[in-house]
Amino acid sequence: MDSTNLSVLLLMALLLSLSCAEDEMAPLSCPEYQEGFDGSCYEFVALPRSFLSGQGWCERGGGHLAFILNIDTQQFLQKHLQPEQDWWLGLAPASPNLTLDSAVAEGPLSWLDGSDVSYSNWVNDPDPGAGCGHILRSSEFQWEATSNCSQELHFICQFVQKHIILQKPIGEFGIIKCYSMNQSTDGANCKALYGSPLQIQVEVEAGTNVTYKLHSGEMLVANSSAVRGIVPHNITVGPEVEQQLGSGCHQLTLHASNGVSVLGVSTELQVCLLEPVEGLLGSVMAEEGECPDSDLYVSVYLDRGAPVQLLFQVSGANDSISKTRDMQNRSMQVYNISTTIQGFLQVKVRAWNVFSHMDVDVGNTTVVCHNSSDLRQNGYANTVRPAKSGTPVQELQSAVAYTVANLGQQGMLSGETLGQMFKSVSDILNKGSSQEKNDRMKLREQMLMNLTEALEISSSSTPQKVQLTARAVAGLTKRGDELSPDAQLEASFLVANLSSSLLSMNVSEHGGEEEMVQAATPIVEAASNILDVSSNVSTKREVSDLLLKGMDNVQSALLNWKKVDEDPVIVNSSQITVFVNRVSTETIQMQSISNPISSSASFSFPPLGADVLSPDEPVDVRMLSFKKNPFSWSEENNITGTVGSVSLTRGNGSVIPIENLSEEIEIFLPRPEGVQANSTILYLGNYSTLMVDVPSPDVTLVLKIKPSKDITFQLFLGYKDYPNDKQYIAKTQMPHQSNTQEEKYTWVLGPKDLTGKVGVHYLVVRPIVEAGVKSVNATVTVTSIAAQCTYWNETLSTWSEDGCRVGPLTTLLATQCLCTHLTFFGNSFFVMPNLVDVSRTAELFGTFAQNPVVVCFIGSIFVAYVLVVIWARRKDIQDTAKVKVTLLEDNDPLAEYRYMLNISTGHRRGASTSSQVTVTLLGMQGESEPHHLTDPDKPVFERGAVDTFLLTTPFSLGELQSIRLWHDNSGGHPAWYINKVMVQDVETGQKWHFLCNSWLTIDMSECTLDKVFPVATEMDLKKFSNMFFMRTAKDFRDGHIWFSVISRPPTSTFTCVQRVSCCFSLLLCTMLTSIMFWGIPTDPSEQTMDLGHIEFTWQQLMIGVQSSIIMFPINLLIVSIFRNTRPRETKPGKPKAEVSKQGKTGRVSPSQPSSPQRDRELTPDTVIKDIKKIAQSLSKAMKSPIPRLELEMKSGPQTDINTLLSLVEDIIRQQNRASGEFYTDASKKEGSLILSLGVTNLQETSMCGSPEKTGDGRQKRSTSSQYLYRQLHHVEKELSLLGPSRFPNPDSYCQAVQQVQGMKGLLESSSLAGDELAQSPGQAESSDGDSGSKKCCQDGLPWWFVFIGWILVVATSGVSGYFTMMYGLTYGKDRSISWLISMVVSFFQSLLIIQPLKVLGFAAFFALVLKKVDQEEYGDPKIEGALRNPDDPDVVWAVRRDSTRSYYQPPPPTDVERMRNNMIKEQKVFALIKEILTYMGFMWMLLLVAYGQRDPNAYFLIQHIRQSFSQGISDSMSHGNVFTWANTSLLSNLFGEYPGFITDGNSKLVGNARLRQVRVQKNSCRIARSMRQAVPDCHAPYSWEVEDMGSYGPGWNRSAGENTSKTLRSPWQYQTQAQLRAQPIWGSVVLYRGGGFVVDLGPDSQNASSTLQHLFDNTWLDMFTRAVFVEFTVYNANVNLFCIVTLMLETTAVGAFQFRSELQSVRLYQSTGGLHIFVMASEVIYFLFIFYYMYVQGKLMKLQKWAYFKTKWNLLELAIILLSWSALSVFIKRSLLGNRDMEYYHNHKDQFASFHDTATADAVLGYLIAFLVLLATVKLWHLMRFNPKLHMITATLQRAWTDISGFILVITIMFLAYSMISNLMYGWKLYSYRTLLDSALTMVSLQLGIFNYDEVLDYNPVLGAFLIGSCIIFMTFVVLNLFISVILVAFTQEQMHHKPSEEEEIVDLMLMKFCSLFGIKYKKEESNSPKVIANHASVTKQGPSTISS
């Protein structure tokens, strides 16, 4: 062992030995005034007290009067007692109450804790009447008993001292054991029964205060603590923790630790939580092997209890073997058992664990072995059971079939054998899911048939065997949905068979009654399961008969052993209750036959005579109760409630007939769940009619009346008319004459009373009033119940009513049936809806004044509807103006190929733009010119808007590849968020989608104004994000009926007015359906369905379904009509102007006056430019440009027109060579010109159909030729207008005309007819498709259907509103208000939560599952008219655009960068404004908080108190003067005229005032050697080191205070600062400690005066006193302030006292005054600002990292935040301290209440708030950093800082030098120089001119003049002036070199903004700095551009 380990061991041993030694020798720790002995502290109190008073004194200190239990204690006390005094001991009679009354004091004396006096030292034996005991004086400390316990003696207090146990390190674990269910297992492998507590017994070899923790991974299983580790300790693991762990084996970690051994020790435990062994199944297969060995394969399955041990017992004819195996889990496992036994074998398996076991006989088998030669000769093969590869149910089915077959072969097939096995199988099936339902049904049916076969072979002979079989049947029938009809019938046979077997048994031979009940219970359970599903099969009658037979057998079997008048036997199940009992004839008429624990039927018999029941013979009572009708096969199956039967039989089983009784049998049948009754409140003052619907002629109507007052009234019932005094079908008067209150107000109307009438009946309630009284102010609640009582007529096999009627005690929960016979009884209930009497409308509206709620609400909805409709109509008009196709103004006149652009602006905040947007399309065959997207008639690119533009190109661009968008960043909000763009080729109908979702702005996202967007592929369109958001936006904008009112798509034909009207109708219908079902009582017994946190009942579900059926169809019809109705077509004869207003196409007309188009003159250059454009367009359509074309284009405007036309022909000829057929020379010669622009691949399609195609090439040629023909026609028109005179060479003109006409002629002759070429493509489409459009485009309903929709809206709204008001008037005011609140909350919950969630859910479903791209639901806006009229002269005179102009180009990068910089500056401006406004709000809140904590009245209160108590104070006061002042001024002001108030009666004295002095010790200083003889002693000035903290007696006599109690408040005893709850306090001289010698002055002036006199007489103030404090607290309710007052009289050991006062005001109660709420709100808002600044600084800190702390302004912000939270914590601390001090005052009003801690906290809070205000004000400098002047000052100080720092050092040295010399010269004489700090302050005042020259010059004129003069010369004239000069020089240099910063530009920009806001012209000062660009939009917004040719 190395030296390190050895030293560690030695150190541990030393620690252990020390700890043990300390444990044994730990001394007692008692206070200095107590003595310790034998574990207790004793205090000898020399104060005379009675016995009870002395005991109370000790109890207050936590002790009691002393006990002397042995001689050692006696001797110890004798050492400290004064023998001449009597001392009380803790002796008293043993009584429960310590009263010491003579009448109570009986019995011997004992110690106060009830223990006997085992040791005694009596002088004389105690008298019987003695009540207490004491130590007798002068008796050598012997005891005496006395009956006078009120005499006052000294006493001894005993305080028990707690032992301090020194902790020891923990050793290793000892023995660990586990205990569960009285079973003990080893700790290494603990076993416990799952669900029962597990106790783990642990111990460690050493250690104290041990903490044990048991973990399973991260989970804490259990923890516990033990004082001593070597003592075994139990750790309990409860069932709840076991459920978290789960059954099975778990690896746990046990850890032990304490304060010494931090790491502790750990060990691993294996804990197995075992379940009881259940569900053991097995089967056996034999494998024929080679002799002598053979193998058995046993399959074992265990449902619960694993892990277990398996014992296999194999028995043969002469031998047997046993093998054990382990089974770790419940899955089926196959075990190989080798055996040498041959022949017939029986195999049994036992599975067991520690707590339970189970045996099963797995079957028999025959084993035959073969020799190897036989195997080879005969070819035998091993037969092993093959493994199943099917489903688990199929495997189970095979195992069951195989096992049953084996049992049958072995002759062991019996009901109990199969029952045990099938019960386990059924448990498996019942726990499984509903999958493989057919297989499960077949398996159940197979097992039921197997049970039937087994019972036929051998019936069960004991109750236990019956129970085993019945349990299997009950388990197999538990899930009714898996029972086939044959299985139900088979199970019914089994129930009847098992009940017969049970009936045939002898109870005495087969156990007792308990076994019979246990056997009958599963039979009833099985019958209940079958009954629950038997109504669904065709064999239900046969099943019903078998079940009834089985229940009768069960009742007979249970009655076999019954004795008379015992407790009944009751067997309960889910559907059937069986009740049997044997009673005497007297008993049956005294008790009710019912089941107390279930809701079954109950029967009560009337008195039965001797002719019915024999008095000497007992009666067997048999009662059955079915929750479902067992006779459901009957045709009259209208029984909906509980069916019950009761029969009386004799002992031999014969039935006693009960019929035609004179008195009726009372039967209560519970009603079916979910059935409700209607309750209606009638106001008898003005409305007393109710409509009641009687659904059947056989029904009985029960009316329950509940009046609000005790009144008499009549009820009239009429049929189809209102009853009166003469016409009615029934009437009665209430209250009835009855014994019970319920029957008094119940009216039962049977079928005879109702005369068989069915339908609406009218009930009139008429109060009976005295003469002259017109109305009664009362209400009655009418509850109508329709019920029916029937019985089962066994003869006719039908339900009948003879002899039964409905009783008056029928309630909502049960029907009372009164019958005169016995059989099966049933009841029916009927649901009647709430009805409203329409004919009583006037009467109902007459109650409007008392109940205006619903009527006013409906009226307000109608008014709101009218207002909203007005708004909606205006919105529809605005939307109509938006729906138009804008023909772009800058479309080229020659370009007639059309593209429609649908541009969607996003819904984001700030998505709209005010900029000029430009677009360019890029296709495979060319690129369009840039086009401005503007419309002078409507705003474009608004938020969420879709704008449509028509753009033209000369030819088709082919397949589009991308689109380019940019804008010029002009206007007030230039940023633009573009959502998507859809481009449609109008000529072919093809569409391209561009998913943009981008910002075009300079300050967001990509910071760009120009972007190219590629065309979206199908995959892009089907992305989840795109489909989800598009679907969501579409559903909210159009699909959601409520939200779409605001965001309706303008192109929708479903107008905003129609949507509002649909919402109005839907709301009223919803209100009607809600109020119809409002107030229906809830069935308390109805089962609640729980879906997580959502609970509902079937009643609520049905109400929702019924409401939907009533409400949604009509509203869905209205919405469908409005949505699918076509708009009305415009009449042909309408004026064109009117058509243009209503149409959907708008045009920017080039002939507007604002456009100077007609001012231009048509010149040959114009024609040449047009021909150039034709050539350029044809060239762009080619793959590569033609060099000749480029050359001609560069030749300028002087290009020959004939050359250009020839160039066009060359282009066509070249393209012809490329494509095969394009304007060949042969065609020219033959006079037929064929022109085919083969590069264009366009398909003309229309919305209704496509023209017949004769070839793709021809289609292309015809379309392209048409556009070329139009352009040539345009050139020809220009040439005709010019004429030859305008050309320099007329021949060239003629040649040009011929060239153009030639090409046109060839196009006319070769491609199309001339009229088709002459018209525009748009005209051709309109003419061709006109006839077809009327046939195929008329989708939807005719336009006049809109009137049907409006009629339905008016009808539903009117009807719903009317009936809702009627219901509201009927319900009354309170119910109406409740309904209204519920309906409004439900409506908004559905509108704002449920419906948006549904929209999102559907959108996610469509995006994830369907993935279908939405097509445009609304058709494209129709383009009315052609692009341009061919004969329109404006075409010729139109402006030719110049695409090279700058406004058609994107902004250059330099301009974008400049705009971005300006934008950043503008953002900084707004950020600065925001910061300033936020700071102003923050500063305002801070000042409100700061001044809210202070009160101006505090100053006046303090001054008033200070002046009141400073009367009589002189500059120098002696001890006598102090007492004189205290007796005069102090007491007269402290105890004023009003008791409890000081001075003038306004300030309440809180508690008593107290005097406190601090003293110094005797001889606390040294005396000079030469003066020691003259001066005997020396007393130093006060300091904490020499302060006297001793305890004395009166007159400062130390010997007199030795036996005085140290815990009493004595003026001569020092009390510490903590005891006094005080704080140190500054005086004029020094800082005084908070302790001292204290005396309370008492509650009044008399006590205070006597106390002062006592102190004066005993020289309380002497030469050792250094300071006297008068402390008290007052409360002035007028100003709500507490004032903590401390008056100080202090001396510096010279003998004279100086007066000083310290007063501090505190407001503890904030609830007075109206300003309190305002201040509280300010505090809350202030901390909201703090949270905001914390968020800002947090972001800044995250961004800047450690550089954050290098900025001084960041540190300032951080300091403000920290100070704010510090102030909040101090505020909370002050509140807590204030509450504590006030609570102390209320509990100790006769003592001094110290508020010093509260005052200190308040002072700290004030300082913190003051510094907060200081720092927040300094922050203003940072906010003004953009001010040029302040910026220059800051820069100046930075520039001069080096020189300034040097001068500051010089100034400091000079000030320090003059301060020290003045303090040394005058400090002992003049007050202004008494300390170095005072001298420094005086020198500073000298520099400021505030100086007292006289006192210095009077003291020493020469030195004083020199000192003052030199200071003024050097400090003021030289140093300070130089200091100022340095700053001025730096300021001058800064002015010369100052460069304007960016901040100055920001300030100028901000001022410009403010000036422009108020219309003020702002002029920037001229400076050398560059000018600030004020507007970020540098590109001036262009109006309608003039495009030159």
What labels would you give this structure?
1989 residues; 10-stranded antiparallel sheet; alpha+beta; single chain; 47 helices; disordered N terminus; disordered C terminus
Short description:
This protein is of the alpha+beta class and 1989 residues long.
List the helices and strands and how they pair.
Layout: H1 3-25, E1 35-37, E2 40-49, H2 51-60, E3 64-65, H3 71-80, E4 87-88, E5 91-93, E6 109-111, E7 132-135, E8 143-146, E9 153-160, E10 177-180, E11 183-186, E12 189-193, E13 198-202, E14 208-216, E15 219-228, E16 233-237, H4 239-245, E17 248-257, E18 265-274, E19 281-287, E20 294-301, E21 308-315, E22 320-327, E23 333-339, E24 343-352, E25 357-367, H5 372-378, H6 392-409, H7 415-431, H8 437-457, H9 463-476, H10 485-503, H11 513-533, H12 540-559, E26 569-572, E27 576-583, H13 585-588, E28 602-604, E29 619-626, E30 643-649, E31 665-670, E32 678-683, E33 689-694, E34 700-707, E35 713-719, E36 730-734, H14 741-744, E37 746-749, E38 759-767, E39 779-793, E40 798-800, E41 804-806, E42 814-819, E43 824-830, H15 841-845, H16 853-882, E44 885-887, E45 897-905, E46 917-923, E47 926-927, E48 931-932, E49 946-953, E50 960-967, E51 976-985, E52 991-1000, E53 1010-1014, H17 1018-1021, H18 1024-1039, H19 1044-1047, H20 1056-1076, E54 1088-1091, E55 1094-1097, H21 1098-1124, H22 1136-1142, E56 1145-1147, H23 1164-1180, H24 1187-1194, ...
Parallel strand pairs: 4-9, 12-18, 44-49, 44-56
Antiparallel strand pairs: 1-2, 2-9, 3-9, 4-7, 5-6, 7-8, 10-11, 10-13, 13-16, 14-15, 14-17, 17-18, 19-20, 20-23, 21-22, 21-24, 24-25, 26-27, 27-29, 28-31, 29-30, 30-43, 31-42, 32-39, 33-38, 34-37, 34-39, 35-36, 35-38, 39-40, 39-43, 41-42, 45-49, 45-51, 46-47, 46-48, 46-50, 50-53, 51-52, 54-55, ...
Helix pairs in contact: 6-7, 6-8, 7-8, 7-9, 8-10, 9-10, 9-11, 10-11, 10-12, 11-12, 16-20, 16-31, 18-32, 20-21, 20-31, 21-31, 23-25, 23-27, 25-28, 27-28, 34-39, 34-41, 34-47, 36-38, 39-40, 40-41, 42-46, 43-44, 43-46, 45-46
